[in-house]
Design a protein that fits this description.
77% of the residues lie in helices and 0% in strands. The protein has helices at residues 5-16, 19-41, 48-62, 71-92.
Length: 94
């Protein structure tokens, strides 16, 4: 069976980067997916740049102990993303 382009990109990334960097990427994607699901469930529109930055920060924070995000941390992350988005758009409207 042929690899998809995503599998090929991931395989190339894994060859070019360390195990730690690959774990960071997987953790980032996992956190982002969970955050997006929660934001969608709450019908909250957010800024993608803020979402990406917040999820990257959280992934980097969780990487050294090598653990997954807890439900409580996910709720806090979603609230932080929401607040940061509101602040960004409030500044634009001034």
């Amino acid at each position: 069976m042929k690899n998809t382009w995503r599998e090929e990109r991931l395989a190339r990334f894994a060859k070019q980067h360390s195990k730690q960097e690959l774990r960071l990427l997987v953790l980032f994607k996992q956190i982002k997916t969970k955050a997006e699901e929660e934001l969608k469930r709450r019908s909250i529109q957010i800024d993608d740049d803020i979402l990406n930055q917040a999820c990257a920060d959280k992934a980097a924070e969780l990487l050294p102990p090598d653990r997954d995000i807890t439900p409580e941390e996910l709720v806090k992350l979603v609230e932080d993303i929401t607040v940061r988005t509101k602040e960004k758009y409030a500044k634009r409207s001034l």
